[in-house]
Amino acid sequence: MSGIIDSRERVLGRIRAAARNFAAADPQPAAKDAQELAGADAAIPRRYARSGRLSAEARMALMAERLREYGAEVAVCKPEELAAAITQQIAASGRRIFVAPPGIPVAWRVEVANKIKGFECSFDHGLQIGEIEQAEGVMTAAFCGIADSGTIVLHHSASEGRRMLTLLPDWHLCILKASQVVETLPEYFDRCPQPPALVTWISGPSATADIEMTRIQGVHGPRFLNVILADDRGKEPAVH
Amino acid sequence: MRVSLFVTCYNDTLFPETGRAVVSLLERLGVEVEFLSRQTCCGQMHANTGFRGEAFSQAKRLVRLYQDAETVVIPSSSCVAMIRDQYPGLMEELGNEEQRKQFAALLPRVYELTEFLVEKLGVEDVGAYFPHRVTYHASCHALRGLHAGDRPVRLLKKVRGLELAPLENLDRCCGFGGTFSVKNGEVSSAMLAVKLLDVLETGAEFCTALDNSCLMHLSGAMHRQYAGMRTIHIAQILASTQEQPAEVSP
Amino acid sequence: MSAPGGQLDDRAILDPAHAPPFPAAALTVLRDPQLRKNVAHATDVIQAKRALLVAEKTDWQELRSAASRIKEEALDHLGAYLKQFEERCTAAGGTVHWAADAAEARRIILEILREEKAEEVIKIKTMTSAEIQLNPFLEAAGIRAHETDLAEIILQLGKGEPSHIVVPALHVNRSQVREVFARRMGIEDLSDDPQALTAAARGFLRRKFLTVPMAISGANFLIAETGAVVVVESEGNGRMCLTLPRTLITLAGIEKVLPRFADLEVMLQLLARSATGERMNPYTSLWTGVRADDGPQRFHVVLLDNGRSSILARRTGRQTLKCIRCAACMNACPVYRQTGGHAYGSVYPGPIGAILTPQLEQMQHAQSLPYASSLCGACYEVCPVKINIPEVLLELRARVTDQERRQARRIFDPLYIGLRVANLLFSRAWLFHAAQWAGRIGLRFFTGKDGWIHRLPGVGAKWTQTRDLRGLPRQTFHAWWTGRRQAIGNRH
Description:
The complex is a heterotrimer of chains A (about 240), B (about 250) and C (about 500). With about 240 residues, chain A is an alpha/beta fold.
């Protein structure tokens, strides 16, 4: 392994040598790295739009519109109708074998189980790849929605599931509350005081345009993305 | 007002009618024109081909030549872009303190022709008459180098009798690129072929621009193909009047 | 692959050390109308989509300025940020390796694969692995590398080479894809509908995703602050490679580092809009080291220099390293639109390739690339991180000229002779005027009755093979001016 350790020194040495050509850069030894980087952020001109300008209602509408442009299905409902909306979506999908992360609210699945014949939902307490792959659908919550780009953000908490859970089943039902939807991407970052360790930003079903730039929906990821937006405005404070 | 005309080496040699038009246009607008006969080239050809030393020797020659000029007017956006975008680097790398100072003092006094008319003289209607259908080709240096925007179009719109035909894909290069047109002659020709389709589609009698270099490229293909369209530098259109119509090149 | 097939079978075409010079390579492509049509169509579509989405973003220029500064800052303190990344990635359970050059990176990757007793590996599209020619190397070592990006499958199965960094198979049309898939996947009644072709690829790869325990990826960003890695993709093949296997190896150029997690708020707004003309690409994944219950349990990052630190040392050239590989410059480039990617003889084509490749090669190869541009500036205008590509092209042309002018054979090179003579002429007005006079006499021989030149010898033939040239007018401007002044003088 000594050769590889040498390489580290060689690469860093070359970088130091290159830096010496420029006044702005770093000839300091390793001990000073932290000092060197302190305050570097201040020099970045961040004059781009940080917060959105839309009303809560318009923000919801934009989120739905942008999701639909990607080919996602969107349903809007009141919080008290959420269980009914979930049931309706699943019934309409014709899919019965589901997986879900263990942390989703009980209410989300009780009504479905009662109303849809043959509905089965396995909770991911360490499911095997094969078991997840057999599922026809997956139901999860999300960390946040970004209206400007129609993006759903998963931080893979107990209600959002492991990464493969929202990857292998062909149909992803994602439940998002209006209070979780921000307008701009920087507003999402404002909601992350601590950088998360695991993130998936999802903008529509998987897609490709590799053949003659024709957009085809559904390659390897889920081919169908359904989103239920629960309009909880004025009813409860922001979740996160 | 008094201006010194830097006509550029290729206009001097190949397009003297453009220089004559600049003189007659500016004099008509009450501007006194002088011409320093020791002028040659701005160094663009050398700089763009990688001959930096040679480009610098022409740059310092030009800067010295015009150090006493009140205002320098140049009927070529690529030569103006050369002075604005490339001289600073050349001066920084190869020049001395004195030359850098001389250049810094000259730079704000250098104008492309239409820039001089609109920004410095504040005129858009120069009293021209040119009863033809014309399309405007935005050369890359005018568009992205000088950010000329719609300035040339505003001038053309005030020309009596002129019918302006809009050009599709205005921002697309004609493929000239100086020595690129011979070093990569085939690719350059392919780009020209695509450009020419859009230009001919306008059905104009004339294609104009701020740069005779692009126009020389376009006219070379038009003439080869008997396309029936001709090129004319914008100065010649703006100089044209009922009494003294534009000198049109063959 | 039928139309461009013959030359695509030649694996060396994207190796800068062996590729033919740009003008010669371009000529081959210019004679392929199908390929030119495919390239023009694809670049038109992406450009139109991009233009719409950039126009709706009122703070686009502010985002560009921020992105440019973020990358400059990362490069200014590259050593410190890389060490920070290494420390935090390691703390999160990752293993960081350093590779000074391509050979070292290949060796490191092979060693990991051997330790894992791997026979197969799945890959998400990474131009960096193409740069180090990883696949043929693994193949020779007995390890099969399966590309999983749709375009990369098309090329791998069809033995083609990428011609674009975002849409690598844009030079191939649907019927060519159909032919390759039908033959290599053994599907007889496959239609050429992109939907059906995509479905075929999905079926073809599903088993691999579920069974191959090793994956290789590139990285769009490395986050120094947290030691996280970010991969931006569309199809979900990336997520498959990043989450299902037991072991993941990420190969990343050292310039991919971003100081902070929050810098993504700028980069992710710019990247998809510039690259594919989407507000956001379908999937962006971020992970930090390993997590006990989720994803690969062994994770390696290989930090690759391979010439990058030498680029970092150049005043003008170092901005090349700001590139986030969006390919907006190639879509906008009028040269690329005619020639496609293969003419550049490198896995990095287009304007960014024209400046990146010769510098990665430390100016030992690819010297014709800095000249593969009309300097129209369209690339700079669309670049989301404000790389002044024309400025770098000019610097590289100067470096090439400095190399070449010392070569003995340049004494007889007409271009060198011409430019040297021109320099002399421009240094004295009287010499310039004499040359104008001599030129007029000389060219009279080539000028037709219509006043135009139709045919020139030597270098001039490069012009007149497709274009006429107006003959020199009888009187230069300065001669007219002198005459006029004398006439005015006489009148007074």
